[in-house]
Amino acid sequence: MTRLLLYLLILFFSAKGKNGANIFDSSFPARDGTFRLFTKSEHINSYHISYYANGEDKPGREISHLRKNSGFHLLQQEEPGLPIASREVHQLKLIKDDSGIIMYVDDRKIIDWTDENEYGPILQEGKIGFRQMQWTHFRYKNYKAWALTK
Q1: Rounded CA gap, 94 and 104, in Å?
Q2: Is the dihedral of CA 134, 138, 141, 146 positive or negative?
Q3: Name one GO biological process term (predicted).
Q4: Residue 97 belongs to what H/E stretch?
Q5: pLDDT digits (tens, 9 = 90+) for 40-72
């Protein structure tokens, strides 16, 4: 019998404390990795994209999800992210320009969304972070971030 490997890979971005505070503000309660502390927080707003999901509750979910937090609001779910069985190296690219959010996997667009304030103000600058389940074996290299110029 083949053991099902359960993983979830997420990219958080534009993460900032409510009222503009840094997400590492010492006045915020300690976070222990519990997902809802990031997605339904009383202290932090962010966007996140799950671009690989093979979870116990929905094994084999290939469709990428874009969500806005706090609140875990689903904004878009259309295109597959990383293939579930892939062992290849993949390239991720995220472009966040004012209200526009575009993400590519290997030059294939998986997210293309314009935030129109439906779930609160458009999130701008903030921290970027990768989140994955503790038993995953995914690695990242050659990470680069640039400010967009007009």
Answers
A1: 6
A2: negative
A3: carbohydrate metabolic process
A4: strand 92-97
A5: 999 999 999 999 988 777 788 889 999 999 999
